[in-house]
Amino acid sequence: MIATRLSAVWQVAGVAAAALCCYLVSQSVAAERAGLNKVDRQIAETHDAIARLQMEIGVRARMGQLESWNRDVLALQAPRPSQFVPSGVQLASLYGRKGQSVLQLDPAIAAQQGSPTNVSYQPARPQTQQAPTVTTPAPEAMPPQPLLRNATFVRPAPDRLSGMSSVATATPVVQKASFEPIKPNSAAKLSFEPAKAPAAPRVKPTPVKLAARDSLKPLLPDDIGALAAREAKGTSKAAR
Amino acid sequence: MNAPAALRIDRAERVELRDAAMMPATPLGVAQQRLMVIMLLFMLVTAVIGLRLVQICLFGSADSRAGAGSGLAARGEILDRNGQPLATTIKLWAVAVNPQKILGDKNILAVKLNQLMPEKSVDEYRHILFGKRKFLYLRQPAPPELAAAVHALGDPGMLLLSEPHRLFPQSAMAGHLLGYSQQVENPRSHREEITGIGVERYFDDDLKAGKSVALSIDTRVQAALESEIAKRMAETQAVGGAGVILDVHTGEVLAMASLPDINPNAPLRDQSIMANKVTQSTYELGSTFKMLTFANALENGVLSDMSQTFDVTQPLHVGGFTIHDDEPKHRAITVPEVMTFSSNIGTAMIADQLGPDRVKAFFKKLGFDQRPEIELRERGLPQFPGYWARTTVMTTAYGHGIAVTPLHLATVYAALANGGIMHPATLRKLPPNAQVPGKRIVSEATSARIRQLMRLVVLQGTGTNADAAGLRVGGKTGTAEKISGRGYNKNANITVFSGVFPMDQPRYVVLTLLDDAKASKATAGWKTAGWMTAPLTRRVIARVGPLLGIQPELDKDIDVSDLMPLLADKKVPGKNVFE
């Protein structure tokens, strides 16, 4: 009876409860959405913080600042043209300057393939009638030689040339070759002529061409370079 | 038919109501029932309002903040060609005050504010706090420490705002190029208008939409160029300097410097140096134009024989003008010698043979009668002669009587070196192997000959000081008296060197310009380009060449052996060279 009387109330209450439930569902969805927004916001804030830090690093390491540090504090300079090495041969030629040790080969490779002493620049002893052999026995009487030689077409570094005189006199076995013009007086030790080794007597090679050159030698003056320079000087004076 | 049905429903309801009313049997019960329903409705509405309030309190602000954050896109970044940021937007604090909402003692607050921000006195702060304004910035932007200290004051009238701020991390580097953009109110129309200069202004729409702009600029090259120009300006006491480095094959600008520079972080401090000297200022660029005249003459067959000679022993008198050489020669000189000696007389004779029509047409073909093409609004209009008299033809041949921007010249030198195709200069980074618009201005053969002449100038001519070892530099010096007012200032020069490297496979044009560089002991008393901008160009190229992937090679060079016999006086390489 009472239930019948209050049926309308129950209906309203039921509707209200259902609406409330729906509303709570929407609330929970809103809460989730708010949570997502919060995460998005945190991500954005983190991005901002990263951007700020990157900017701070960027500003502190700006090019002008770096250059002043490089110049004033670290005393760095831009590399000179001679410091650019286009090939491995030129790189290898940079070793062994100013009395430094020569470029050391890997012992494993040296044991396996042998030392490159065999491909020395030194003119081979004349074996006129024999075919050239790859494994020439190392000369016994020769002083120890560097493992790696400079290729002939490589321009030697200037300071290397300056230190050449003492090296050349001490070990006059290997001559460095250069395509630079050689002054007759000062650079006699750098000439292509085979150096004279006073202590170790050598057997002169006797190829045909060399013999011809030897036969011409007495006809030429001793210092033809100096003579030519003197002549050129005189000519230019006369021209004036 | 409807009426009876309605009557039936009414009757049924009445019966039902009567039955329901009969159960409580009193009208009071019906009233109570109705009251309860109404009360429940009120409770429901109140609960809804309450829950909504809770929702707004807990989550409402988050929604609004998120909406505010995502609705307005941050201004896009400006990047260099390697992705380094040149301009970006970060959020910084700003300190403001609303004096009407101050709760604490304003006198004490004024003292505290003075301690935190001493740029204003206590009296000034007191004046602000007791004033009638509702909003006033006190520090914008403010460092985080200051923001924290202001927050610690705890007064609701003190406002901390997180605001976007445009930042240029490289400070004043490429200031004219990057520029600024801001919205101001036009005092006449009272409308908001965008003003500004540089890339910021040109790409304003893209940047506003949040798009990043990748420039062709290389930060390292830009820094090196600016640093070397500034150093040379200090050495020669020049009042200004400019420089530009272009890719000859694409027209991409790798660096553009205009000194004294502006700091885009605070661009409007000095209005007198706002002009971009590379794209906006026009100069008579002197003997650098000789290369153009030679190209024109080669193209038109006027210089078919390199061994033909020009008598430059006497100055030329044409139409009241006298054309003479700085270092007169007392003999006839060959075509390459006209270039290496930079003979005005010889070049004027060549231009005279070309005639006004061909000279004018060639300059127009090069775009010297129009503003330069580049993505900037600051582009200067050249001073192009209106009437081409014989004297005009002769003087423009060596860069006098015509004024263009340095960018004009750099673009043309790029074309002369790259095989004859002129590409418009661009500040956008182009993708690899991009199709670049271009037009042919000279033939491949003319370009090859011009490359030889450029290299010859550096090997044997006025540009020996520009010879960066191993980088095969070619180019031409140019010296012109500075225009001041209606005439020339004989004591002030504009010195230019426009160079290309490496000449065997041209990659880049480097143009440097000094404004009123003074002679000194370091320049052996000279104030011509060979002693001013040529050494500057050499330093720049020596520094940026390896950065751009061009290694110095001492045993490589362009073949000029067919022209060398035509030079009677040969210079010894490395002799009489600056430094």
How would you briefly describe this protein structure?
The complex is a heterodimer of chains A (240) and B (579). Chain A has nine helices and no strands.
Protein described:
Chain A has helices at residues 2-5, 7-60, 63-73, 88-93, 107-113, 158-162, 164-170, 208-216, 224-239. Chain A is mostly helical and 240 residues long. Among the domains of chain A are: 9-73; 206-240, no CATH class. Chain A is rod-shaped, with a radius of gyration of 43 Å. Chain B has 579 residues and is of the alpha+beta class. Chain B folds into 2 domains: 75-90 and 166-214, Alpha-Beta Complex (Penicillin-binding protein 2a (Domain 2)), CATH 3.90.1310; 222-566, DD-peptidase/beta-lactamase superfamily (Beta-lactamase), CATH 3.40.710.10. Helix content of chain B is 38%, strand content 19%. Chain B contains 17 helices and 18 strands. Chain B has helices at 2-22, 27-71, 106-116, 122-129, 144-153, 175-178, 198-202, 204-208, 219-236, 290-299, 335-340, 344-354, 356-365, 390-397, 406-418, 444-460, 529-547; strands at 78-79, 85-97, 136-142, 158-167, 180-185, 192-197, 213-214, 240-247, 253-259, 309-311, 316-318, 321-323, 332-334, 421-422, 439-440, 474-484, 487-501, 508-515. In chain B, the strands form 6 sheets. In chain B, strands 1, 2, 3, 4 and 7 form a 5-stranded mixed beta sheet that branches. Chain B has a 5-stranded antiparallel beta sheet with strand order 9-8-18-17-16, sandwiched between helices. In chain B, strands 5-6 form a two-stranded antiparallel ribbon. In chain B, helix 3 (106-116) crosses helix 4 and helix 10 (290-299) runs antiparallel to helix 16. Chain B is elongated, with a radius of gyration of 37 Å. The termini of chain B are far apart. In chain B, 43% of the residues are buried. The interface between A and B is large, with 40 and 50 residues.
